[in-house]
Amino acid sequence: MRSLSLPISTSGRAPCAPAMSKRGMFIQGSNWWKLRREAVAHGADITASARSSSSSSLSQLALGESLRAEFPILDQQVNGQPLVYLDNAATSQKPRVVLEAMSRCYTEYNANVHRGVHALSAKATQEYEQAREKVAVLIGASTCREVVIVRNATEGINLVANTWGSANIKQGDEIILSVAEHHANLVPWQLLAARTGAVLRHVRLTPDKSQLDMDHFRSLLSPRTRLISLVHVSNVLGCVLDTAYVAEQARRVGAKLLLDCCQSVPHMPVDVRSLGADWIVASSHKFCGPSGVGILWGRYEVLESMDPWMGGGEMIADVHLDHSTFAMPPTRFEAGTPAIAETIGMGAAAEWLYGLGMERVHAYEEKIGTYLYERLAAVSPRVTIYGPRPGGPRGRASLAAFNVEGLHATDVSTLLDMAGVAVRSGHHCAQPLHRELGVSASARASAYIYNTEAEVDKFVEALTDTIKFFDDMHGAAS
Ligand SMILES: Cc1ncc(COP(=O)(O)O)c(C=O)c1O
């Protein structure tokens, strides 16, 4: 596999390594400070060159069956049946390159980052900062200085709510969310509204309840709108937001825009330079990386305007007993020892996924997602699948949240599990959306790049058996 060949400074440190205390940098001698300044000056070129060198042998690898060898976990039996893993919207599986990258970190160069002058620490810092660059490439950031490493998307949204939100949202200001948001994009704003007296407005669903009603969205906009925070791709409906329209409207009313890209970054090309958002968030564990790490991307001038959230080591410039000054972003928002091996794993995942080609990933998912939808819809007229039909103007994600009339989603999922098929059931952290849909729960099958049509067939077969099992049971009981 060819790597992205990201440029690394001659000292072996990545150009985007956050600044250590200035005193520390001079003590180290060498040209660290100069490199740091160069990194800042050339930030915009870093990902441009990395992006243009993206051709890789991975881009020749067929998706689906051919990829499965890269995912050792998929080759196992569950409840005596070959595993069919269709819970990818909750978390994806991890390819060997990610497992190996994390293992190498612990077996070859484990040390704290940005602190030591010794070889292991330099290597750990280099790998850690390269991971930031790899994620920057995946999301199209023009500089890795815009990529804040956080624990997950949830933390990224909380960070914005507690920094930009606390400083800029006042009583009577309005925040536009939607009824389809994941709890991660509802609760932080509820907490902010409770602190500030801001008003939350929610975009409702279209009359067929398949996606967000953009006319309603427009009607909610006003000079009081300070922030719009919406899901790019819904983890339940699978609908895809018209981000160009939303960004245009946000600009028109002078509101900031945050996009929850948890279900888009893993599955389609996402280019933050053209998205029109001020921030996006994504979680590594959903794009083939480890859990415990994710990203907040923000336009640099917006990040620069934000106060720190958590205080502690690393995020400072100078600390005195009674006050401190703070580092520039992204370091300003990364207090304490980070999840080092996990971040390195996330970088390996970003590089691997980007190497496959996100256009190809998206095309494959459209194909398997449509197959999943159509096979599932044909199981029984009692099956309701939520969200838009495939083939619509905005497409839909390769997931299907559904219910079978007369059956509880958890019972369905339990029986599917007995057949080796892993799907999620419950409210998928979208309780308000389920209320809108008139149900308390749904089952959800979500496919990814390593799933095959044969697996969808097994899922459909197991679901057909499940329905028959419950019908027989109910028949016997009546
Ligand atoms: C659309 C969406 N937003 C946010 C999240 C929260 O992600 P995390 O728990 O990794 O922070 C998820 C996870 O399921 C999601 O699907």
What is this structure's SSE topology?
Layout: H1 22-27, H2 32-41, H3 43-52, E1 77-78, E2 81-82, E3 84-85, H4 96-108, H5 119-139, E4 147-150, H6 153-168, E5 174-178, H7 187-196, E6 199-203, H8 214-220, E7 225-231, H9 243-253, E8 256-260, H10 272-275, E9 279-283, E10 294-298, H11 300-305, E11 316-319, E12 324-326, H12 340-356, H13 358-377, E13 383-385, E14 399-404, H14 409-418, E15 421-422, E16 424-426, H15 431-437, E17 442-446, H16 453-477
Parallel strand pairs: 3-15, 5-6, 5-7, 7-8, 8-9
Antiparallel strand pairs: 1-2, 4-10, 9-10, 11-12, 13-14, 14-17, 16-17
Helix pairs in contact: 3-5, 4-12, 5-12, 6-7, 13-16
This protein binds pyridoxal-5'-phosphate (PLP).
Pyridoxal-5'-phosphate (PLP) binds next to helix 6.
Q: Would you kindly provide a written description of the structure presented here, covering whatever features stand out?
A:
By secondary structure, this protein is an alpha/beta fold. It has a domain at 136-356: Type I PLP-dependent aspartate aminotransferase-like (Major domain) (Aspartate Aminotransferase, domain 2, 3-Layer(aba) Sandwich). It is built from 16 helices and 17 strands. It has helices at 22-27, 32-41, 43-52, 96-108, 119-139, 153-168, 187-196, 214-220, 243-253, 272-275, 300-305, 340-356, 358-377, 409-418, 431-437, 453-477; strands spanning 77-78, 81-82, 84-85, 147-150, 174-178, 199-203, 225-231, 256-260, 279-283, 294-298, 316-319, 324-326, 383-385, 399-404, 421-422, 424-426, 442-446. It has a seven-stranded mixed sheet, sandwiched between helices. It has a four-stranded antiparallel sheet with strand order 13-14-17-16, with helices on one face. A two-stranded antiparallel sheet has the order 1-2. Strand 8, helix 10 and strand 9 (279-283) form a beta-alpha-beta unit. The protein binds pyridoxal-5'-phosphate. Pyridoxal-5'-phosphate binds next to helix 6. It catalyses: (sulfur carrier)-H + L-cysteine = (sulfur carrier)-SH + L-alanine. GO terms for molecular function: cysteine desulfurase activity; pyridoxal phosphate binding. Pfam families: Aminotran_5 (PF00266).
